[in-house]
Amino acid sequence: DTGVSQDPRHKITKRGQNVTFRCDPISEHNRLYWYRQTLGQGPEFLTYFQNEAQLEKSRLLSDRFSAERPKGSFSTLEIQRTEQGDSAMYLCAVDSSLPETQYFGPGTRLLVL
Amino acid sequence: QKEVEQDPGPLSVPEGAIVSLNCTYSNSAFQYFMWYRQYSRKGPELLMYTYSSGNKEDGRFTAQVDKSSKYISLFIRDSQPSDSATYLCAMSAPFGDGQNFVFGPGTRLSVLP
């Protein structure tokens, strides 16, 4: 148990719909990351929060994607007007007690039909 | 050239075999090196972490880093069927106020009883 929960675990939606995912670290973590992982690939960085401030965004994060971490604890990732290419596992990670390493949540698997 | 390359696999070995998993990288700024294990439909789980060149051992697992060659390896001794998973190498470098994490595409390992 890494102490990071994600909800929902699976989501099936139709193209054009909006979806929102949630990441809940059990304890306080300064840094929170979102990644996307497609089949046969490693996680690809999307965005990163230091407390409630969103400090970095990847080029992968188009304007249809938005992430928030309003109180510096849980975070949400929203995808608007979903496309089939958005189908992937969306992973949340937090910094661990080891320097510069991360603990991952179980992920949300998104399928866009 | 991708920033991090990993032996693609899949790799299939008999129980008890020694497994060698390898990654190469191009960015000499990477300072921290990690191996994650990912079971099917789960989030990555931190397995090994190292900072300097050399070997680090933890039970049946040994992580090896050669910064001069930009090459890292993970060795698994006495492999077990429960080791069957995808193994992801990851590395990080300072970026702004945080770290830039980059993952390899993963090697799928099957240990046959």
Counting copies of identical and different chains, the oligomeric state is heterodimer
Contiguous uncertain segments of 5+ residues of chain A: none
Helical coverage of chain A, percent range? under 10%
Number of helices of chain B: 0
Largest sheet of chain B: 6 strands, mixed
Keywords:
heterodimer; A: 113 residues; mainly beta; four-stranded antiparallel sheet; 0% helix; 52% strand; B: 113 residues; six-stranded mixed sheet; five-stranded antiparallel sheet; 11 strands
Walk me through the structure.
The complex is a heterodimer of chains A (113) and B (113). Chain A is mainly beta. Chain A is 0% helix and 52% strand. Chain A contains no helices and eleven strands. Chain A has strands at residues 4-7, 10-13, 19-25, 31-37, 44-50, 53-57, 65-68, 75-79, 88-95, 102-104, 108-112. In chain A, the strands form two sheets. In chain A, strands 2, 4, 5, 6, 9, 10 and 11 form a seven-stranded mixed β-sheet that branches. Chain A is globular, with a radius of gyration of 13 Å. Chain B has 113 residues and is mainly beta. Chain B is built from no helices and eleven strands. In chain B, strands 2, 4, 5, 9, 10 and 11 form a six-stranded mixed β-sheet that branches. A five-stranded antiparallel β-sheet of chain B has the order 1-3-8-7-6, with no helix packed on it. In chain B, a hairpin with a 6-residue loop joins strand 4 (32-38) and strand 5. Classes of the chains: A mainly beta (113), B mainly beta (113). Chains A and B meet through strand 5 and strand 10 of A and strand 4, strand 5, strand 9 and strand 10 of B.
